[in-house]
Design goal:
This protein is an alpha/beta fold. It is built from two helices and 19 strands.
């Protein structure tokens, strides 16, 4: 059975950085009050390698697995308990809202192997998108410019620009028309 044991292929440097980030996150990030110290949270993310634009609002209850894999544009809002599972790169464009409880997941496991090795691929969320409450984005997708993902939707494939997606599994239910 030893041959079926999970093997962590992440580097020691990555593991040590995540340990350091985890301590910093729990002491200095999460405990900062949500109504103030937003710039402090942005500073901490940048300190650990994230690229964060201007005017972003980041709730202290968000989870970030690896800030160094995170790129955030200008005027982005990350709501309460958003989970950015950034094993791979997450790029968020400008003027994007990611609502409470959403899960942006760049990693999974290869279920065709009994060892279940970690697999990962990036997620891109382009400008003017809205990811509504408790939505889940799977690894390797792009949410194209202006698209909306409805609350509690599970998106497993990329969208086209200015579409509205809903459901589990997520399907295109309409076009977003700006007046």
């Amino acid at each position: 059975m030893k041959e079926l044991r999970y093997k962590n292929k992440l580097s020691m440097k990555n593991r040590m950085m995540r340990l350091l980030w985890g301590v910093t996150y729990r002491i200095f990030f999460v405990l900062s009050p949500p109504w103030i110290l937003n710039n402090w949270r942005v500073f901490l993310l940048k300190l650990f390698g994230a690229r964060v634009g201007v005017g972003c609002k980041i709730d202290p209850s968000i989870k970030v697995w690896a800030p160094w894999n995170l790129v955030i544009g200008d005027y982005v809002a990350l709501g309460e308990k958003v989970n950015l599972y950034s094993v791979d790169r997450i790029e968020i464009g400008s003027k994007v809202a990611i609502s409470d409880g959403s899960f942006i997941c760049t990693a999974s496991h290869d279920i065709s192997s009994l060892v279940r090795p970690l697999t990962h691929s990036p997620i891109y969320i382009e400008d003017h998108c809205w990811i509504a409450s408790q939505a889940m984005l799977h690894p390797g997708i792009t949410i194209k410019e202006g698209s909306i993902v409805a609350a509690r939707s599970v998106i497993r494939k990329s969208t086209n620009s200015w579409e509205i997606w809903a459901g589990n599994p997520g399907t295109m239910v309409g076009n977003r028309i700006i007046k």
